[in-house]
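Tokens for Protein TIC 214. Go.
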Amino acid sequence: MNNLTRFFTNLTRFLTNICTNLTKSVFGVMKICIVVTCKSVFGVMKICIVVTCLYYGGPLIQPGLAWRPDIVLGDLKLPQIKRRSSSEKRYALRKELIELIKRGEDHCAYDYQNGLWRIIRPLDALYQITGEDCWIFLRCPLGIRGLIILQKAFSRKYIWLPLAIIGKNIARILLFQQPEWAEDITDWKNETYWICDEYGFRLRYGKISITNALEILTTNMPQQWWEFGFEVEVSMPVELRPWHIPDEYKRRRRLGAYIKPTWGLTHYPWCPSFPPRYLFWIPIYEVIQEKIQTLVYKVVKEKMQRLEQIVKELHNNFRHLPEIKLKIELVVNNPNLDEKDKNKKKQQIKPSFKK
């Protein structure tokens, strides 16, 4: 009776845990889906309105300046117009960077024509110049590239990351593990986006989300961004893992990155994407590897014990056999020897047995 009561109590506890986890997961999924759909719809509507206003010359006076009815056009202090360097200067700069790369220089100081200098790798600066030249050759304004990057940022924040979090926690529930909704949502909230100029410098009030996208795009954009473009920086990017592990993995976390218009993140604008680190699969691989090693060690140990037992049994059985001594006759066939010598060389076989 005691065993039956224990069994039924354990069964009820197990079923209650499953029901609570399922209800938590269902409510969490519903909450995330509602928030994502509402924010994505309103954000796309705002961005479409802003882009149409900018393209058709709507209420905006100058990119980066907001329209107010109490301001007269003569009172506006328009910023100084930026000029792109000539093709000859860009060609000379590209040639200089190639020479630095050939000499094996790791870093160089690069002037951004706005009073700012940055120490970067020559290869990164070369990537940026060649990418800009490609867009200039195609006669496309770099603002289109910036809008594509912004669309990638919003789709990452409000579509792909929530779907990945939902899939991960549902998989944990199906594997009878505790879901990690709170930890993943805090990581998702800590990931923020910043509007930067074409060289990757953050703007002062450039923190952007889908709620303040209209305000940022109308009031706080880089100067002449439609011609020179802009970048989007991600601070504390989310890197999903199967479970939250100790601090040794948190040390490897990236503090910032830039979004590419194609796919992935990069450490500097116009550079190639980061190589995949497979942080989601590394802990799973380590656990599986440890279990396989323990299983192999256990099997090999059992087989070696069985082999030692067989060797001991054979040794004990052969100890009781009679001891045999043999004398081997060696005959040397040499035609130069006489028959007498041959008879001397002969040895007779005399077997003897001892018990």
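Confidence is low (pLDDT under 50) at residues 52-78, 347-355.
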